């Protein structure tokens, strides 16, 4: 019997429930997918807490990899038996199998296994648009990357080295600092012990950086702005510490800064652009130029424990759930 993790009210991890579900046949434009691995992302907690509203009761999760078991009428870009991955679909990835829109699926190259795919599709596509679409970076540029030992951070650091960039990464512990450096981060800052902006200025001879990639939010936004050079860009692509307050006058005071709060969905809405970003990502991973670190594996039925671990900041690299 198929099962899914669902929630009937918003709140802490304890609201997540394992429920048996009936998975029917796919309708027009739909597929039925059997999941082999499911991605665990911090954004999942936003739906669970209600920060991102969803009609209740609701499934949870937007990323997984598996095998197409059946296709509905009009589906042509995937077929029964295809290995696929996806991110950004309707909620419901925390499940053993599901019926879902076929348009969300990306065919998975043979050289990438299901666990790697579930660990990297959202994070890898995020790294892809951050480095290839947000800002005209050039070899020799230096960037500041928060949460450098996280799933996105480890991919960004490796990809940045391929682009000839210097990466300054913030982390919470010496262990995470070593992990970040092992994945290409040039300099690490222990943000709980050091003044981030002061260290960035020291490392850049007082100039600051042209780009800050900030997935933390409220706790880091002040240091992020103080680390930017004149007319630099702050990219707030996550809010693990809460939504940051932004005062437009602070942008002026720090040198006519720019700020964007992007969402992956807006960079993969066009199937052609999504396939372009995914193709470059998959090429690097399949060739071994970018390694994907699965730091934590949880049984899907242990989603409550997984969410508690994630929110406590006790994860490194990517985390996945196994049905």
Automatic annotation (TrEMBL):
The keyword Repeat does not apply. Residues 11-321 form the Enoyl reductase (ER) domain. SUPFAM superfamilies: GroES-like (SSF50129), NAD(P)-binding Rossmann-fold domains (SSF51735). Pfam families: ADH_N, ADH_zinc_N. Gene3D superfamilies: Medium-chain alcohol dehydrogenases, catalytic domain, NAD(P)-binding Rossmann-like Domain. Keywords: NADP, Oxidoreductase. NCBIfam families: PRK10754.1. This is Quinone oxidoreductase. The lineage of its organism: Bacteria, Bacillati, Actinomycetota, Actinomycetes, Kitasatosporales.
């Amino acid at each position: 019997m198929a099962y899914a993790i669902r929630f009937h009210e918003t709140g802490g991890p304890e609201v997540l429930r394992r429920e048996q579900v009936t998975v029917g046949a796919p309708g027009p434009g739909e597929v039925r997918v059997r999941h082999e691995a499911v991605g665990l992302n911090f954004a999942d907690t936003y739906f669970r807490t209600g920060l991102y509203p969803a009609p209740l009761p609701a499934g949870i999760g937007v990323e997984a990899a598996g095998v197409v078991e059946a296709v509905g009428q009009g589906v042509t870009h995937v077929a029964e038996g295809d290995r696929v991955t996806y991110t950004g679909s309707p909620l419901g990835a925390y499940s053993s199998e599901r019926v879902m829109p076929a348009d969300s699926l990306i065919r998975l190259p043979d050289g990438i296994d299901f666990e790697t795919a579930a660990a990297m599709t959202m994070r890898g596509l995020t790294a892809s648009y951050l480095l290839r679409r947000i800002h005209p970076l050039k070899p020799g540029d230096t960037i500041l990357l928060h949460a450098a030992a996280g799933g996105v951070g480890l991919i960004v650091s490796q990809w940045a080295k391929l682009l000839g960039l210097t990466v300054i990464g913030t982390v919470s512990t010496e262990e995470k600092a070593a992990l970040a450096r092992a994945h290409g981060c040039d300099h690490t800052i222990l943000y709980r012990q050091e003044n981030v902006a002061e260290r960035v200025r020291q490392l850049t001879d007082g100039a600051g950086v042209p780009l800050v990639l900030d997935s933390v939010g409220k706790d880091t936004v002040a240091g992020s702005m103080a680390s930017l050079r004149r007319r630099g860009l702050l990219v707030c692509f996550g809010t693990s510490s809460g939504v940051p307050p932004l005062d437009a006058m602070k942008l002026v005071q720090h040198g006519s800064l720019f700020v964007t709060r992007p969402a992956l969905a807006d960079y993969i809405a066009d199937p052609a652009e999504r396939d372009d970003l995914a193709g470059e990502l998959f090429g690097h991973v399949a060739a071994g130029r970018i390694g994907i670190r699965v730091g934590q594996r949880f049984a899907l039925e242990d989603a409550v424990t997984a969410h508690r671990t994630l929110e406590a900041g006790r994860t490194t690299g990517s985390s996945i759930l196994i049905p």
